[in-house]
């Protein structure tokens, strides 16, 4: 895993974006009416697969929607692939290179998988003579070639989700934003999905928001943990797993607490690390108002 | 008397002309309705009734009086009317779609390299349908067609003199509603994906607005030109510039408050500008024979739409709206 991590860093240097990553965010604040969804976060991501973890309402979807240029931040700067995402020509240039799988998406009644992906290829301005092949390639990569001419409304939730992933990669994006991509997939499809995402992450910057810590442990090279609209942890799956061990050492000798029980019930070491970081953060937040952000080995 | 003749020995023969010098009386009509008339007699009555409206009325009354036949007739009537409505609506809708397809196709044909083998539809046609798609499917188009068919039926079928002023009053807000129903997070199931793509923002919004205008401007103008004229009413095409201006105004306002709210505000503004003075003036100068103030509405519309100055003002408003859309294009890129 360390090897993968190093190769990611070299690739960042190679693509000439050493100064800032392909995705750069500073002081990003997003409000929904009165509530603050994101509270001045800074983030710098390069090629690789980045897991975005956090409880419900932490701001994962808000962050992904801003990066997808779908919603506007109240404050802060977003740079995608060196394009400032506020002015028109730059915004269009950035949008051509983005792939986006929303948490919920609809489609027109009567659309087949092919229509759906081809429509997005057209929206993404994939050149007309290359579009047909690009559509078939994207559909093949998510393993839906045999269903390409099936109507979307006849397909199961997991299959529609895979069609959604196909539309997100049809333009071979440099920045791929996936909001809960594994929701509704069965275990076998999830394994196939992780393989695909790792492959995509060799060239593109992939940001995956998920509830399934397992996905992060297996597929991701970096982890970002959001809580209450702030980044509370950045690191790798390994460093997150290590958090659980230090926690366990600290707790050794003490009586069995509810925290330890929770730790025993949760699956892998990364999941225990996730819970440990959240618990620490909440404890710190209840003592001092502005929570200090923790940083792992990655930064 | 007439009935006697009918029942007379000479009786209607098979080759007897339908317009024979006899007529159906109430008793015969009742027997026909009950089904007790002999077959040749019934046949001959039917032939006669085709050419004689007086007897047709007599038979019709008799048939309606017998309960089972009345019910059957109601059913048949419902089915026939339903069928006709479906056929008319379907026909008009197809024609409108064809028209838009044709018009938009011409624009897109240049440039797009046709690319056949991988897609079932020709590529450019598919693109046009994708771009205009949601604008032309669904509830708005049906509403538009209902208004058009309803106006024709009301104007000719019921002979309602206020139809044309009413249609002219309603016409400018129909494209505004069409734009609100064709684009945006509430109207387009693929909005979220489209909003993250280079063609999905302003370009798609404008394409769909153009499709909406392309269908509604000619259709509504043609229908209102067909309707019976009311005195003092502006000509049918007088609403075109206001329709365009209000649509552009709704687009520009949409960049501040969202497209649905903007459409609501613009429509309400137009409706109150037209209807409030009419309602205020009604007690004094009713104009129309019934309760509907045809003349007052026509006069109000003429004040807004007729003449060079009014039309120039609408043209200026349309230009201003277009300029505002241009200025606000950044905001319209992601609503």
Describe this structure in words.
The complex is a heterodimer of chains A (299) and B (335). Chain A is an alpha/beta fold and 299 residues long. Chain A folds into two domains: 1-6 and 22-97 and 174-236, P-loop containing nucleotide triphosphate hydrolases (Rossmann fold, 3-Layer(aba) Sandwich), CATH 3.40.50; 106-172, no CATH class. In chain A, 44% of the residues lie in helices and 21% in strands. The longest helix of chain A is centred in the C-terminal third of the chain and has 19 residues, at 269-287. Chain A is globular. Chain B is mainly alpha-helical and 335 residues long. Chain B has 16 helices and no strands. Chain B has helices spanning 2-7, 26-34, 39-51, 53-65, 67-109, 123-136, 139-157, 163-170, 173-182, 191-195, 202-226, 240-257, 259-281, 294-305, 308-327, 329-333. The radius of gyration of chain B is 28 Å and the shape is elongated. The termini of chain B are far apart. Classes of the chains: A alpha/beta (299), B mainly alpha (335). The interface between A and B is medium-sized, with 39 and 30 residues.
> N-to-C SSE series of chain B?
HHHHHHHHHHHHHHHH
- In the CATH hierarchy, the architecture of the largest domain in chain A is 3-Layer(aba) Sandwich
Number of domains of chain A: 2
Structural class of chain A: alpha/beta
Distance between the termini of chain A: 16 Å
| Total beta strands of chain A | 11
Instruction: Give the C-alpha Rg of chain A.
Output: 20 Å
CATH superfamily of the largest domain in chain A: P-loop containing nucleotide triphosphate hydrolases
**Can you tell me the overall shape of chain A?**
globular
Question: Would you count the extended β strands of chain B for me?
Answer: 0
If strands are numbered along the chain, what order do they take across the biggest sheet of chain A? 6-7-8-3-9-10-11
